[in-house]
Amino acid sequence: MTTKQVGEFSVTAVSDGMLYSNHDVILGIERVESERLTGIPYGQPLPLDVNAFLVRHGGKLMLSDAGSGHTMGPTLGKLPQSLRATGVAPEQVEIILLTHLHPDHSLGLVDEQGRAVFPNAELIVHEVEAAFWLDRAPQQNDSERITRNTKAQRAVTAPYRDRIRRIKDGEVLPGITAQLAPGHTPGHTNFLLQSGSDRLLLWGDIVHLAAVQMARPDATLVFDVDPQLARATRERVLGWAATEGVVVAGAHLGFPGFGRVVRSGAGYGYQPA
Predict the structure, then answer these.
(1) Residue 17: helix, strand or coil by DSSP?
(2) CA atoms lying within 13 Å on the CB side of residue 206
(3) Which DSSP string corresponds to 65-133?
(4) What CATH code would you report for 2-272?
């Protein structure tokens, strides 16, 4: 168990398991470059840790993202047991900060019977994200991936419909500020925790593959709803994080997922903290 103290905040990394992807999901760079950066030959799986973060502050128990649940294979869906290993039952979680509504971050909201895994939790989600996945009428040019995910998000948030708080940018809870970071999804959101002079940025999916996207922030993924906006957002956030020296907590930055961004040549590097 790895816990970072951020002033009065206590942030513990909890694992949902391991997601296996492949080089074909990486766009914008040559295959040989992605092989060089990852050290993994084409055709072999690319492992991505899926992390969530348990936040304790002011007597409240909060969770950043909800994992993938039972939907994505046997190597994932470990979040409830990981929480219990820290001494916290899912029923004790009071607030879930959703960085965005993608399967590995939200489908763990419900169990195999469609019941709430976190029955006492309020969901906090940016109004832009909620509008896109939960309100928007289907469009003729929607991709199959967007159509499938829209249906999934409406199903997993249904048990929480009376406990969804749609937010704008700005302070959403004491010491927690929401920052719209769009592109990967329209309402993808970073949450900045600040207590005194200590800060930590919960940044969701700003980076999926640190070995690739730190050195080459221009590399996008097939999962990005708007790849060019995702690229611009990533470059902006990486630049800010490197300049500020702030600790970041990422869903896919290995486990436990805490680190710092440093400038390295024309790109960036990642230093686990």
Answers:
(1) strand
(2) 27
(3) ----TTSS-TTS--HHHHHHHTT--GGG--EEE-S---HHHHGGGB-TTS-BSSTTPEEEEEHHHHIII
(4) 3.60.15.10
Which residues neighbour 270 within 8 Å (Cβ) at sequence distance 6 or greater? 207, 210, 214, 253, 259, 260, 261, 262
**What pLDDT does 87 receive?**
97
- Return left, alpha or beta for 94; rule: phi > 0 is left, psi -120 to 50 is alpha, else beta: alpha
- How far apart are alpha carbons 126 and 73 in whole angstroms? 28
**H/E element, 190:** strand 189-195
Separation of alpha carbons 70 and 105, rounded Å? 12
Q: Which two tokens stand for residue 69?
A: 């649940």
Residue 80 in contact with residue 88, Cβ under 8 Å? no
Using only the alpha carbons of the chain, give its radius of gyration. Answer: 17
Sign of CA dihedral 77, 81, 84, 85: negative
Distance CA 28, CA 97 (A): 31
Whether the bond into 256 is cis, omega within 30 of 0? yes
Amino acid at 119: P
SS3 state at 201:
strand
Distances (CA, A) of 91 to 71, 80, 88, 164: 21, 10, 8, 17
- Tell me the per-residue pLDDT of 12-40, one tens digit each, with 9 for 90 and over: 999 999 999 999 999 999 999 999 999 99
What per-residue confidence (pLDDT) applies to 1? 75
| Prediction pTM value | 0.97
235: left (phi over 0), alpha (psi -120 to 50) or beta: alpha
The mean pLDDT value for 148-165 works out to: 98
Q: CA distances (Å), 12 to each of 6, 37, 76, 190, 222, in order?
A: 11, 29, 19, 17, 30
Asked if residue 1 lies in contact with residue 85, where contact means CB atoms within 8 angstroms, the answer is yes
